């Protein structure tokens, strides 16, 4: 990488030569994320293709995906795991629609997806006794002020801001309410304290880099009790109905899905889980993400024209790292020109086949967002960063 420090804040095009090495895999999107190293179509099982998802073969593969998820994530035996429709969004909203309304609730958000759950609670469910906690991109609200009697909805890791919760100490072990945790860009990369998590959701296309469209819903005994003892006053669409009579429909958590799943996507997820198991399981998934994140975090700290969107190092993610521009040149631009800088850099590198889809999220401040999850190789990140320096110099000189 080009040497940049506080004494050399200005980059000239002639001082930043075009790098010679490109990433082997240029996929740095924050979802769907890069496929695991060595992925190919011949790693996808076909035994259930063309079969009913309710056949012994189809249901068996869905159950295998559930069982392998439990094994790798270390999910307690008395928790249930279900494959549900509509990705992480469907899983979060299924939990909210089935569980909220029984008692006061707090919804905490600090980026765009968390704000969707706020809008669901305020405008769709119209929850009485609702508390909303929010914060700007890069920050996290004071979660310690949450009443332990409340149900809590929160995002473990801010996918579009790069701000994660540093721990779950703020969740009371003696809580009266349930917790609904959108963990889609954290799970498989960050530790989950299952004792504090009642309904946890994620999608296959985030940390594991699998195909999209399916969500996972993990329920604690406390969540199961809530669902079975409470009937919400609002109507439930078919894809949200997880009760059979007055009891939870446990078949959903044994591979009998509510609607028709893609068995091709299921096999892709299974292949990713088997790869994870082959490299050492959860510990190595966490370690790979941590090593990748350190490369990018250290580079941002050494680059005077960038800063991490998250000011507190304890709250910085190890998955989708978000960075914003700074410095005299950038700050002299009007808002429209500032917004164009990351777009131009991303477009230049996409055109050259260097890096795809690492522009910041559309609702976030103008930024770059680089995915560092476990399916990304360290060497590819090391090769990407000098190209960003080169592209920035070209944009600045234009």
Number of helices: 9
Mean pLDDT over the residues: 95
- The CATH class of the largest domain is identified as Alpha Beta
DSSP strand (E) fraction?
5-15%
- Rg over CA atoms: 22 Å
Number of domains: 2
For the record, what is the CATH homologous superfamily label of the largest domain?
Answer: Type I PLP-dependent aspartate aminotransferase-like (Major domain)
Helical residue percent band: 25-40%
What ranges have pLDDT less than 50 throughout 5 or more consecutive residues?
A: 1-9
Largest sheet: 7 strands, mixed
Describe this structure in words.
The chain has helices at 56-73, 87-99, 112-124, 221-229, 263-278, 282-301, 328-331, 335-351, 378-397, and strands spanning 80-85, 105-109, 130-134, 151-155, 179-182, 199-203, 214-219, 243-244, 247-248, 306-308, 320-325, 368-371. The protein has 398 residues and is of the alpha/beta class. The chain has two domains: 13-36 and 282-397, Aspartate Aminotransferase, domain 1, CATH 3.90.1150; 41-278, Aspartate Aminotransferase, domain 2 (3-Layer(aba) Sandwich), CATH 3.40.640.10. The strands form three sheets. Strands 1-7-6-5-4-2-3 form a seven-stranded mixed sheet, sandwiched between helices. The protein has a three-stranded antiparallel sheet with strand order 10-11-12. The protein has a two-stranded antiparallel sheet with strand order 8-9. Helix 3 (112-124) links the parallel strand 2 and strand 3. Helix 6 (282-301) packs parallel to helix 9. The longest helix has 20 residues, at 282-301. The radius of gyration is 22 Å and the shape is globular. Mean pLDDT is 95; it is low at 1-9.
